[in-house]
């Protein structure tokens, strides 16, 4: 584990870019992303880039990750539009269960446009919202606008908070090191937990009693 910390802490900006963009795309596009720690990854990326004094890279990564997050949600939207959501619910699932899918659908139904914006800040809804919006045939232009606004508020906030927060901590080297270790540990632990949880959920049978969320009535409302 210590070797992993050292590797990530000394990773160059290019490696940080590859890791961040790959994970953000998967989290925003596919159901597996439901279990990935996107928030901590973005923050940790900013912290690591600060150790290289890569301010320009942090800003450019914010822009690139923002675009990838929007594109990923578009992929999730069309997956939901093509497949629906019924097959996601698992019997005995802790996260992927009928109740959680219904709650996510009701959230989208009540808030419509703003639900997609706010979903960026709610981990498991962040991944489900595009699929539900697609299954419910939310207007694509409104969905794209909403998910773009959400991405603008989400991605740069976390990356730049990590970068400038770590910059302030450079005045206290021991605290900066602790922040880096905690950020990376949270990311590694969250990813490991996510992979394990995904395998556990997918091993359970599909809940045949779950209804498709195409019944969501007002996803296009502003």
From TrEMBL:
UniProt topology in membrane: Multi-pass membrane protein
Taxonomically, the superkingdom here is: Bacteria
Query: What residues does the VTT domain cover?
Result: 36-163
The question of whether Magnesium is a record keyword is answered with no
Q: In which broad location class does this protein mainly occur, judging by the first location in its UniProt entry? A: membrane
Instruction: Show the PANTHER family listed in the entry.
Output: INNER MEMBRANE PROTEIN DEDA-RELATED, TRANSMEMBRANE PROTEIN
Q: What is this protein called?
A: Membrane-associated protein
Q: What is the species listed in this Swiss-Prot or TrEMBL entry?
A: Lentzea albida
